[in-house]
UniProtKB/TrEMBL annotation:
SUPFAM superfamilies: YVTN repeat-like/Quinoprotein amine dehydrogenase. This is 6-bladed beta-propeller.
Amino acid sequence: MEKIKLILFLTLLCSCNTSEKKITKVERISLEAEVITDSIHASLPGRLIVFNDYVVWEEVFASDKFLHVVDLQTRKEVGRMGDVGQGPKEFSAPNISRSYDDYVLVSDFGTKHQAYFSIERFLAGEDYYIPVPNSIKINPKSNFCLLEIERGQFITLQPNSDKLLEHWTRPYFYSFGKFPIPESLRKRDRFSYFQGNVAYNPDLKKLIYTSYRFPYMAIYTKSGKSFKLQTEVKGKFDYSVSSGGEFKRSRDSKEGPRELTLTLDYIVTVDRDLSIDQTDENEVGRDPMKLPHTVFIYDYEGNLLKIVNLGFPVVRIAADTKNNTLYAIVVMDDYVLVKYEL
């Protein structure tokens, strides 16, 4: 791999033993959206999580409650939970992820505050706030991304460390994971360019990382208490790194996937299909109308199977590893929660 340029195509799949498999043909299809609710009234919808018959979506700039719960059967919002603030049961900068059973894991960015929100208790009108027990609570260097893969086992993303990921089972943790590029970056650039999404399929024991800023995906397989790199998928990306570790990217280089979710059979990312969409990523900013309309569908070996046009700019996606239904928040006239069958 050259120091200055990484030139590989999205249709190349590189395994961790350096062998390569080429995707000779990628199917491109369009799917019709089935509207769940058009009552997504927020300046910016945050993360989306699926729990059996319910969907939870986060309101990023909420002033009171930051989580909305939608019943997929009635297609109505049944309530909100999660208080914004500085109190003992409040969160000022919440980060949410799906935990085991029907729990949402909520952590407060920059603090040690962690709790579970029980969907079942919330629906029953009971106190849904459950502090993470001290016996399993962890204190990583960074909790920007915190994912509980099994009861008491956590994955954190650590862009400023020597390894990209940490696996915690209190009181122990170990570091693992490759960065999207081999060069060493200065601390400020590491944090900016190595952030990304992490998702886990508990049935297949597959951990997926995608980078926001690089067209890069890594697939790890869990064996016992360790993770082994199975596959890397690398796209075309032009950049340079100075002797002081300053990172510079080519203006026309492709961004990485904006969203990541896992279904029964597929890894799904929100990505831009450059064959039909030449939007300048540098001009997207916070304009939701300039977001990609497409999702890329991979198998769990990292093979790109198809590119699906969802028909609208895609803000968020979520799924359950028990089926191949994809839920999304898209932009029509307003934000709308929809679903697709993959």
